[in-house]
Amino acid sequence: MFNKVKYQGELWFPDFPDQRCFCILSIVDNKIELETNLVSPDRYSQKNVYPLIFGIFNGLGCLTFVDCKLGSDSTGMIRSAIYIPKYCFNHIEHIVNPKNLQINRFRVAGIGLGKWINLKFEFDKSLLKTNNEVTHNFDIQELGLQIKLNSWITSSVSHEQISLKKSGNIEFSFFSPINVKELLDYYTKAKKLIQFLNGKSGKFSFFNFKCSQHEDWSAIYFKELIFKDSTFEYLSIDFDKISDHLPLLFTKMFTDEKFYFCVNRLLDNQVEGQLTHSKRFTNSISTFEGYCKLNIETKNLKLRNFLKKNQHDILTLSGINEEYFDEFCSKIISSRDYYVHANIKNNNIFSDFELLYISFLLDILVAFNLLKQIEVPQDILKMIIYRARETYNGMQSFNRELSKDTFFDH
């Protein structure tokens, strides 16, 4: 939608269409900022958020800005303001009023699908052949929904080289129209599922939709939640191996509150930004306990009991000796009590370095059990077990050597 950092145009309030003011639209940290001398006609207004502001901009067409927070308001000979809208709707020819939109279709590109969906390159008599487009589509009848996952290759030619680029999008078509809130909910859950399965997603490059009021495409822009790529790709599942199970996975994500809760909590540790090892560990403990309370029928809701009921999977994923399991559980519980309940007199805790790998193990354990609910192929589960052991044993041992500290390790 935005190909440049700055655009020029004019703004007006819906109730005062004849009072239009110049504006510079800027993209700052994926947010829209509107710098303008359009201000409230009421000089003493205490309003901090404006529900709707309309605009026309060169190279973009007609824009509707929603929930515009007043970032600053300077007074003087000429009043000026900076607005930061939460959402922006765009159509090349007319203003979009988002309040009563009835959306039939939407499609989103740039969230990692191009790299995830496999497109093959083959050589034939010195010629490079490509399968230019791949489409996977399926229906979710109970939601009146069809989903298409598209991947394609674009090419560019110069005097020196031929460049090929993989791209992809996801498209939703609804038997009955939905509103904007439902559209955003479907998109958010779909992106989180892709992040959960692939270990990476990315920002959208465009977000278009069609509604019953108009035949052509409109667009929406907002600052979305960004996930960082998984440092250890224990759950980077090959698309071809999981594709047959995607209809059930999407259905679970959209309709099963327990499944969505667990996936959503797992992704807390993948949101862009820096987490301390202890914070990551407490996130993982909370997610693990939440999963167990929702999926294990037991009256004993203590952490030790949950660990005991998952003993087989913990041993399988970590490779630790069974004789060490009780001590291992005690140390997890003591570490939880230390960081969550401030039980600072307890010395039987994991080091800050070890907490990172305990966190990885607990996250893998929850993801492993969620996928077993879907009855994914055994080779996927075996791959997760292999990567989990490589992370917990091999990677931990290697990084322990690298992180040695002369002063603090004794």
Automatic annotation (TrEMBL):
Pfam family, one: ApeA_NTD1
Domain ApeA N-terminal span(s) in chain numbering: 6-250
Name the record gives this protein: Uncharacterized protein
Record-annotated Apea-like HEPN domain positions: 299-379
InterPro entries: ApeA_NTD, HEPN_Apea
